[in-house]
């Protein structure tokens, strides 16, 4: 049984220092011209470099140190399997048709093509009363989260799960909704952190959750891989109703749910009046590099003055965005066709099988791993340890990239996140290497 | 000679009313559930619906009224000619390769591929000292303008040309940099409007321009089609240096310049320390539906505290964006190849010939038309008239869509903007119809 990782090597002390201070030092040379424009104080509040570029940087450093090592990435959650032929062909045909007089198209509707909006509504929101006109096609969920922050503005109070994908918090800091970070806890003032850990079945104690305007909620959760149950989501909607809050529900991994838990917040009665849903083709159809997602804003969702949120979101989309690439939209539509959807769901199954292999691996090491059943992520507990140390040690000993849990919030400090995206042979090799830690 | 348009039909009074007030009325039904979330007050400041969706709406209404009319759009500046084969094929091949094990790619760098960044630097900024690492690939200039506003934040003061493409002002309002709109003038408080009209060769009187943190400047200007001269841009850079301001220079139409005027702000000595440049493949390569652009942030550009703007912009790109579609990037790279660039520039020439035809047409009508030489836009003066009335009358009498100048700011109220994008036969037919106004 695995007992402990020896923290024998030097931590990369400088890596987590904000680049700010380093670079500012360099520029204290009085001869360098500076504008008289003040740096945005909200940008100054951001504490660390953005998590995933940071991990890429560490991977590059490791590759330099061990030029012959075969690094396996179980880090950034990035799809690895080729697109189904029907999807790739549809994009190829669409792209090629742009060279013909009859096939050429210029600007599309900022909100996305009607066909695609309708197909999204029918595929993912059947019998939930969501119309195509309430679906806004985007270039990805992360981009839409920032556009939602522009929509909301700096006066909103927000709640987030802890741990959580960092884009919600970072975009909240940038738009000016937060105070400074509290040293020690690493938490920003004016954000309500909803602790989600195994003791509470990865759901917050809502009796202790302060009222906020916006509640960001991601299910299946990134990083924990936990899919909220019917009962949990009913509680969440009830909380929003009682508090008059708006839920921003991130369902980017919903197609990985196979245990019968809800795949959309709109499966919960009453949710259309209190929730926006953000989602993506990235992990459904392998579109991480193609870039396509969507956001649902129901017409029934109203601000306190009765003004429909959808009208303002439409204005944001028309002013700050110009539509997703038409080629990507053609691919999205193909992936929702009968043949296409079957094909992309078989890729989802493939990644779910990877997750099973990894779950068994960590269990064989005597480690507790959560998630991995309804999600392509495992959340592995290393009690009493520091997640960046665990990240470093796994990398040093096995040449495997993971993600340190503390990158997702204070509640992640004893965890690492492991992705199930990968070629099967790499997952199997990673499994062997991890098991060898025991030897 | 053309003397006057009779304003004989009813203006569409309601169309310019903010949807806000209409819909709010509808929702005063007390039985409708409302959240307790306040509408973002900055969104409430936006006065009108976004210009181009509004024009699309009017076009749809006209088509309904005259179902047999062949409407010709000289309105939204949207490319119409098929992509060069080399460009479309590169995207088709790239898209298809995503269905192969060796060709599949997931997430790319948020900043764009190194190859493309390098190609942009070498094609457009040769001998200006701009490196690929200072080029950030995006999904379009409009999107990057909003990301720049997130970067700057609500405390910045801004200046804009008047008239100007509305995205700068609208995104400034949304991010909270402005006060309310002044009824009558239609101008927002806290924005410095730099009047650019024929009397001053479409360049502001800088001696009367108040100091602002940010100066948005678009050249060739959309809508006037004026390309700023060397002398004008030298004055602009000098102003930024004296005031410690940052210029955000929009060069989306720069490839249309053929009179020797600068195509980049970085042609002006010293500009790298005071300017960001935003640009796009939309009007270079016909990518309005493909979605690809870029922003240059030179390393030398520093905030007052010495912190490099590029570091914060990089953080914005990593947090609020996830890279342009890899397929679009493949197309962008192909369009900058030797064969590709020659092909796309022949399309630029095609549109410039359209502009010549339209210039002659308006001149034959005795109207003064500006632009059209270094830009795909004409800015046509109708002295003493109201631009929405002119828009309506041209539409009613000729079934031609234009853009009312007042949509670009108060200085545009006697103008319409006419685009030179279009199939040649449509441009010729539009020319005939316009000439018939004389008969």
From TrEMBL, chains A, B:
Its EC number is 2.6.1.83. It is an enzyme of class 2 (transferase). Coiled coil: none annotated. Its cofactor is pyridoxal 5'-phosphate. GO terms for molecular function: L,L-diaminopimelate aminotransferase activity. Keywords: Aminotransferase, Pyridoxal phosphate, Transferase. One of its GO terms (biological process) is systemic acquired resistance, salicylic acid mediated signaling pathway. InterPro entries: Aminotransferase_I/II_large, DapL/ALD1, PyrdxlP-dep_Trfase, PyrdxlP-dep_Trfase_major, PyrdxlP-dep_Trfase_small. Residues 70-433 form the Aminotransferase class I/classII large domain. NCBIfam families: DAPAT_plant (TIGR03542). Belongs to the class-I pyridoxal-phosphate-dependent aminotransferase family. LL-diaminopimelate aminotransferase subfamily. This is Aldolase. It comes from Salvia divinorum (Maria pastora). The lineage of its organism: Eukaryota, Viridiplantae, Streptophyta, Embryophyta, Tracheophyta. The gene is ALD1.
């Amino acid at each position: 049984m695995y007992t402990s990782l020896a923290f024998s090597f030097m931590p990369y002390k400088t890596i987590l220092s904000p680049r700010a201070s380093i670079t500012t030092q360099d520029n204290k040379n009085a001869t360098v011209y500076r504008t008289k424009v003040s740096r945005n104080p909200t940008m100054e509040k951001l504490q660390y470099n953005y998590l995933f570029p940071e991990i890429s940087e560490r991977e590059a450093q490791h590759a330099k140190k061990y030029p012959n090592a075969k690094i396996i990435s179980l880090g950034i959650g990035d799809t690895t399997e080729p697109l189904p032929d029907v999807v790739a062909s549809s994009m190829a045909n669409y792209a090629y048709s742009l060279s013909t007089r009859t096939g050429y198209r210029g600007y599309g509707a900022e909100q996305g093509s009607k066909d695609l909006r309708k197909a999204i509504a029918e595929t993912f929101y059947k019998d939930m009363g969501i119309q195509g006109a309430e679906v806004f096609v985007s270039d990805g969920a992360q981009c839409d989260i920032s556009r939602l922050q522009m929509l909301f503005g700096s006066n909103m109070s927000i709640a987030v799960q802890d741990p959580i994908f960092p884009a919600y918090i970072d975009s909240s800091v940038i738009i000016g909704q937060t105070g400074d970070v509290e040293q020690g806890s690493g938490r920003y003032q004016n954000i309500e952190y909803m602790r989600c850990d195994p003791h509470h079945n990865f759901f917050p104690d809502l009796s202790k959750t302060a009222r906020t305007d916006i509640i960001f909620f991601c299910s299946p959760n990134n990083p924990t891989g936990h899919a909220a149950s019917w009962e949990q989501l009913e509680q969440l909607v009830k909380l929003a109703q009682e508090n008059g809050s708006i839920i921003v529900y991130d369902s980017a991994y919903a197609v990985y749910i196979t245990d019968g838990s809800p795949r959309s917040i709109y499966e919960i009665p009453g949710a259309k009046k209190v929730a926006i849903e953000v989602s993506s083709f990235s992990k459904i159809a392998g579109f991480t590099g193609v870039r396509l997602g969507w956001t649902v804003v129901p017409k029934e969702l109203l601000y306190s003055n009765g003004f429909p949120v959808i009208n303002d979101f439409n204005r944001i989309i028309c002013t700050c965005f110009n539509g997703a690439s038409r080629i990507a939209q053609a691919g999205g539509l193909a992936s929702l066709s009968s043949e296409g959807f079957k094909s992309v769901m078989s890729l989802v199954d493939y990644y779910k099988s990877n997750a099973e292999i990894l779950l068994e691996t960590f269990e064989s090491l005597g480690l507790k791993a959560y998630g991995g059943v309804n999600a392509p992520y495992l959340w592995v507990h290393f009690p009493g340890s520091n997640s960046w140390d665990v990240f470093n040690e796994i990398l040093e000993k096995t040449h495997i990239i993971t993600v340190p849990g503390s990158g997702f919030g204070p509640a992640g400090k004893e965890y690492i996140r492991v992705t199930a995206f990968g070629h099967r042979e790499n997952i199997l090799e990673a499994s062997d290497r991890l098991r060898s830690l025991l030897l």
